[in-house]
Amino acid sequence: MIPAIHEDPLTPELLRCFQKDLLRWYQRNQRPLPWRGSRDPYRILVSEVLLQQTRATTAAAYYERFLERFPTLPALARSSLESVLEVWQGLGYYSRARNLHLTARRITADHGGIIPSDPEVLQSLPGIGPYTAAAVASIAFNRDAAVVDGNVLRVLSRVFACRLDPRLPAVRQSLQLLADRLLPAGKASQFNQALMELGALICTPRKPVCRLCALAGVCASLRTGEVQSIPAHTPRPPLPCRNRIVAVVESETGKMLLFTRRPPSGLLGGSGNSPALIRAGRRMDSNLPGDGWSGGSGATPGCGGLNATNLAPCGTPTAISTKITQSSSIQACPSWAHENMQGDFGEGQHPKRNKRCAGNIQTN
Ligand code: SF4
């Protein structure tokens, strides 16, 4: 058990708050997200995979697009991985798309095309961990499985005044046990969504709105004035840095952007990218191009005719992901270098037609 939690935390008042007041609040205040109200296991599976590491409002746009292209599990299983990654483009964490595609094929081959309702069986599928398995089992099949995501960890940490970092495995496990005990039998679908929604809308990381919270009457950290210091965060080591030269290569018609496909595993695995050269370092140097650029780890394979001296600079955006800080120099690639380049090129969206890139990239 968590040492910081006071004895016998599940009082009758606390159970009433979680099992009645919270559900009532959810009925009145839930957001009209596109997957709400659906009990279709395929739609729930797609929404839960999209919601891994992604805000609900961002996931909602991709959800509609994904289901338009792959409306059923058999349709997804029959599709190529490239077509799935194409719809996923821009959302990040591309291993989710690869695993969802693989899961659809596994369910077709091993489960007769029926999505399993048992959380243990769901966890045996690619990319489905305890959180997603519990979410699908409870929301699609109303199985009594408590979901514990980042929002739930924060709410429970605050309600029980847990002063330890909830990302630590032992602390997370203890909070999972509390969530299991709080779950009202037969109401898992509503309970799980209510707790996650409270974390997303009311018990937010920086400015929780305690005066509107259904759990305020039993919240120990509100009582002790520790809301801002809970949950605790263990500092993470600094991210590695690297520089990248990205070549913008237009197709012959000038209407599309040529790209290569990254290897299936690793950072942004399987996604389409412009050819790139890599150099490790703290920040983008001002005297680009220069020496030391290579097609080593993280570079695009098959950049045979591309080198750092035959390109013209267009912009230097910096991107920070959970794994790396990366500065990119966007460079226009002249047609002679383009013709000499080797590799398996496909066509992607032209940057002039992509508002997110338009400010950084000009081609001539
Ligand atoms: S009272 Fe405040 S800190 Fe406690 S659960 Fe509600 S919003 Fe979070």
Radius of gyration: 24 Å
What is the CATH class of the largest domain? Answer: Mainly Alpha
Distance between the termini: 64 Å
Bound molecules: iron/sulfur cluster
Molecular shape: globular
CATH fold-level topology of the largest domain:
Endonuclease III, domain 1
Class computed from helices, strands and strand pairing? alpha+beta
Give the secondary structure arrangement, pairings included.
Elements: H1 12-29, H2 41-51, H3 56-69, H4 73-78, H5 81-88, H6 95-110, H7 119-123, H8 130-141, H9 150-159, H10 169-182, H11 188-201, H12 220-224, E1 241-248, E2 257-261, E3 272-273, E4 276-280, E5 312-315, E6 318-320, E7 325-332, H13 335-340, E8 345-348, H14 355-358
Parallel strand pairs: 1-7
Antiparallel strand pairs: 1-4, 2-3, 2-8, 5-7, 6-7
